[in-house]
Specification:
This protein is an alpha+beta fold. It is built from 17 helices and 13 strands.
Length: 459
């Protein structure tokens, strides 16, 4: 029993062996919300006889991520899902090794560097929509993933990728799904058995691994490792003692930035189009701001500081549709939280989907209302209440990158088009590795040149 002492948090009893496994498998988002509503800020439940603790109060989440962070590691589950691809990359490494890697990678994400990627982001966005026309129907979930994939490949490796970027994306997407499905399945066939899925996973992994190593080798041989893309910066990064990353570390960090960076941002963007199409009032305010701030120009990084409504839209999208919808940790020493004491090895979870919809901290929490962010809400919220990028030392290293990319894409597309969900198209959040929409997000494009002729919808 991982709980020390007499007090045990309340929680659902669940089924005899499975515990809450089926509820969580069938509808994880609502199951976690129901647990929070029924049992409060600290909930205990079981999954196949393994105990889990769900925290639902910002103060407790802040304890885990910030105040007592040294008592926690990333969870075994996270390592199992991503470890084969990411090795010892930033997302899952720990201790001194993680600290050194973070120190080495951090400069690549400084503001001045990020602004250097803005031109690539804009160029790829404009190229992506070059042949989009009024009346086109597009699956915006797929479009946004393809666009952020292209941005990830270009900013990481430069333009000299020896294969098609989409091929790399397909391999990575297959590998992430494969790992997640394996972890969620009650019956786990060993990875070494030659099933069709296992064989494909081995093939895709070998393809991506050898590609990344080949790029690193070519750069090393050409002695132009210090290029301005992310890989170049990682290759030239030097620690205080003069040491640099070896090939394996470069590979693991490049894979990590690629995986952690493109799907999250792609999903954020596809939810943004959905939320704006459902809220024409908010969309109209965004259009007004874009017109006033850009006056017909393409956006640049410097423009975004003058676009508070765009920032509020992004905050609100990340609140209601957080791409990282759940966070997990494991205690590495005894921890006191919320009046309970947990033994080492306890799995602690919290869900951005749940806490971002908590009516104690957000008025009318289900409503998409960017305005709520315009009067300093972020500063007033208790720490831990709004954490789309996490908090504390393990906070997302790519936050600035993601926000710059999202702002560039939203501003570029919204200048030219409005997007309307196809009538009757069901949009159902599906929590896979990131929060997706189960059936995509199928929309019709309306050129903004014709928008004046279209009667506005009620907001
Ligand atoms: C909207 C987009 C994004 C969201 C919502 C997001 C969310 C997060 C969250 C919640 C964490 C913390 C996980 C934890 O505490 O366990 C994290 C970590 C991380 N993210 Fe992001 N992320 C996004 C974009 C990016 C981008 C663009 C990159 C890189 C280019 C990136 C790279 C990373 C890395 C490397 C970590 C691990 C940092 C560490 O542990 O030192 N992310 N992200």
């Amino acid at each position: 029993m991982p709980i020390i002492g007499k007090r045990i948090p309340p929680g659902p009893k669940g089924l005899p062996i499975a515990g809450s496994a089926f509820d969580l498998r069938d509808d994880p988002l609502n199951s976690m919300r129901r647990m929070a509503l029924d049992y409060g800020d600290v909930v205990r439940f079981e999954v196949m006889k393994r105990e889990r603790i769900l925290l639902n109060h910002p103060e407790l989440i802040y304890q885990v991520l910030v105040l007592q962070h040294a008592k926690f590691h990333k969870s075994e589950l996270t390592r199992r899902i991503t470890g084969r691809m990411l090795g010892q990359g930033l997302l899952i490494s720990e201790g001194d090794f993680w600290r050194r890697q973070r120190r080495l990678v951090q400069p690549a994400f400084h503001r001045a560097r990020l602004n250097g990627y803005a031109a690539t982001m804009l160029e790829l966005t404009e190229a992506h929509i070059r042949d989009w026309r009024d009346g086109d129907r597009r699956n915006m979930a797929e479009e946004m993933m393809a666009l952020t994939l292209g941005v990830a490949v270009s900013t990481l490796f430069g333009s000299a990728l020896p294969v098609d970027a989409a091929e790399v994306g397909r391999a990575m997407t297959f590998l992430m799904r494969y790992s997640l499905r394996r972890q969620r399945s009650p019956i786990r066939i060993p990875e070494t058995w030659p099933t069709p899925k296992n064989r494909r996973a081995n093939r895709e992994l070998a393809f991506v691994d050898s590609l990344v190593y080949r790029i690193i080798s070519e750069r090393q041989a050409a002695d132009n490792g210090s290029g301005n893309d992310l890989l170049g910066l990682l290759m030239s990064a030097m620690d205080e003692d003069g040491s640099q990353m070896n090939r394996q570390q470069l590979h693991d960090e490049a894979m990590t930035l690629f995986i952690a960076g493109h799907e999250t941002t792609g999903q954020m963007l596809s939810w943004a189009w959905y939320a704006l199409s459902e809220n024409p009032g908010a969309e109209a305010k965004l259009h007004d701001e874009l017109s006033a701030a850009l006056d017909g120009r393409a956006p640049s990084a410097a423009d975004f500081a003058r676009m508070p409504y765009l920032r509020a839209v992004m905050n609100e999208v990340l609140r209601l549709y957080p791409p990282a919808y759940i966070t997990a940790r494991e205690t590495v020493e005894p921890v006191q939280l919320g009046g309970y004491e947990f033994a080492p090895g306890t799995t602690i979870l919290f869900s951005q989907w749940v806490t971002h919809r908590d009516p104690r901290f957000f008025d009318d929490p289900e409503a998409f209302r960017p305005e709520r962010w315009l009067d300093g809400l972020e500063e007033r919220l208790p720490p831990g209440a709004y954490i789309p990028f996490g908090a504390g030392p393990r906070r997302c290293i790519g936050e600035g990158f993601a926000l710059l990319e999202a702002a560039t894409v939203i501003a570029t597309l919204a200048r030219r088009f409005s997007f309307r969900l196809l009538p009757g198209h069901p949009v159902i959040p599906e929590p896979l590795v990131t929060l997706r929409s189960r059936n995509g997000i199928h929309m019709q494009l309306q050129s903004r040149e014709n928008a004046a002729a279209t009667p506005p919808r009620e907001s």
